[in-house]
Amino acid sequence: MLQYFTKHKIICLVFSFVATTVFYAATCISVGGPVPPSLIGIVTTTVLFLSFLFMSSRIFGRRLDDMVMQWLDYYNRDCDPGRLYGTGAQLAAKIMKGMKNSPRENANGAWFLSFYALAAADLGKVDEAEDMAKAMVRTAELQRKPFDQVTVLVNLEPLVMRLHGVDAAQAILDKAQELLKDLDGQGPDIYGAFVKGEGETLRNMRTGNTAGLLDFFEKVRRNDDQLMRMRVMYADAAASIYQVQGDQVNERACRQFVVSNGNRLPLVPLNNVRLEELVQACMANEEGIQ
User: pTM of this prediction?
Assistant: First the structure.
């Protein structure tokens, strides 16, 4: 994420220049006077500057990645789309600008932009989320390296699923799968499991395999290692299936999970309404039995 933080890039450059200058001054002191310029000296100084720049960029880059991950946690763990939307607005705008002006150099921005766009959609800003999806599609199409293209597509797929449904998401996933076939090592290792698992879920949705879907949804809901937003989302999906099946016990458990853990996600009020209906239905049944 360092490429989107201009101030931090300048700090890296200044630090590298100062560190190189200090090293040169120390060398002059150690030899008892100024070191005359030479080809070896110029090369050595340049290498030092680049080394300091690389080191500082890695350090600042990791810190910024951690900071951005914390922003994403507002959404993925705290289930608060509004907080991510407000905190990450400037970064999202910079990524969008980068994708517009230099799409080939902005594949990594899709990692953040996909979550940000989903948060925007949760807040009812669907047109804004759609603009981000279009920017990511264009960015994917213009990537020279298949790995970078897969990076954008994998991050784009959940957003397309949200905005346009199963068939559109499957088209994105199929493209990513084709590209992965031609990649060795890094691509399949990083994205292979996601593409395979997501493909199976989409296939179950298309074929109406409710048993397979319920098995997956419940595994996610009950898995404490999963992100809370995903657990809530799949609990809601499982509840909808249970409702169709007439299984009010399991439906109620899933909807209660959404209400208890979904915080500010838009699924919460909808599940609250349905929970009240289930409670009233249960009370009516008890009165009928009496």
Answer: 0.86
